[in-house]
Amino acid sequence: MAAAKKRVGILISGRGSNMASLIEAAQAPDYPAEIALVVSNRPGAAGLVRAQAAGVATAIVDHRLFPARADFDAALGRAFEEAGIELICLAGFMRILTDGFVQAWLGRMLNIHPSLLPLFKGLHPHRQALEAGVRIHGCTVHFVVPELDSGPIVAQAAVPVLPGDTEEMLASRVLAEEHRLYPLGLSLVAAGQARLEGGRTVFANGSRTALGLA
């Protein structure tokens, strides 16, 4: 008997392009996760329409309606718990989650960041990469921990930085890899091939070395 698919919730704030790549990947019969709910903190997020068109349940938890971040996060938690969500993926979610929420979902929440972490954390990573003069850039799927963009790495993909690149050109090249990498990273965690243990990502073969992908 095949193992039950993990129920995944996705948090978005905008167009949801990475969300769409996860939904598409999860349509494969052998994919170990199902996208069960998409939640946005912005009622007008275009990603909600995309999710609904794909037949995925959606919900809006408007952060502006809550007096404190903890109250907003508690409402998010209730939405996921009521839907039986087992894993959360952040996909262009533009809110900083409280430590309490992160701890509650530790080892069960993933993010994708458009750089080869630990390089270029935070905002404008493509600008940071160009200003630093690096020749290789990329993206990282990682477990979410309280410190921003600092969680243990699940998977990475690299792209070249080409002469004459602008932020937009580099971002486009990285985004194409994000759409490939995020479904892979989620599949590893959903299938039990990668897990958070002792502050490190541990893979099924026993390695404590972060998985690197060209």
Automatic annotation (TrEMBL):
N(1)-(5-phospho-beta-D-ribosyl)glycinamide binds at G16, S17, N18. GO terms for molecular function: phosphoribosylglycinamide formyltransferase activity. The record marks D149 as: Raises pKa of active site His. Residues 6-183 form the Formyl transferase N-terminal domain. The active site is at H113 (proton donor). It comes from the Bacteria. It catalyses: N(1)-(5-phospho-beta-D-ribosyl)glycinamide + (6R)-10-formyltetrahydrofolate = N(2)-formyl-N(1)-(5-phospho-beta-D-ribosyl)glycinamide + (6S)-5,6,7,8-tetrahydrofolate + H(+). Pathway: Purine metabolism; IMP biosynthesis via de novo pathway; N(2)-formyl-N(1)-(5-phospho-D-ribosyl)glycinamide from N(1)-(5-phospho-D-ribosyl)glycinamide (10-formyl THF route): step 1/1. Its EC number is 2.1.2.2. GO terms for biological process: 'de novo' IMP biosynthetic process. One of its GO terms (cellular component) is cytosol. Keywords: Purine biosynthesis, Transferase. InterPro entries: Formyl_transf_N, Formyl_transf_N_sf, GART. The keyword Transferase applies. (6R)-10-formyltetrahydrofolate binds at R69, M94, R95, I96, L97, N111. Belongs to the GART family. Catalyzes the transfer of a formyl group from 10-formyltetrahydrofolate to 5-phospho-ribosyl-glycinamide (GAR), producing 5-phospho-ribosyl-N-formylglycinamide (FGAR) and tetrahydrofolate. This is Phosphoribosylglycinamide formyltransferase. It comes from Enterovirga aerilata. The gene is purN.
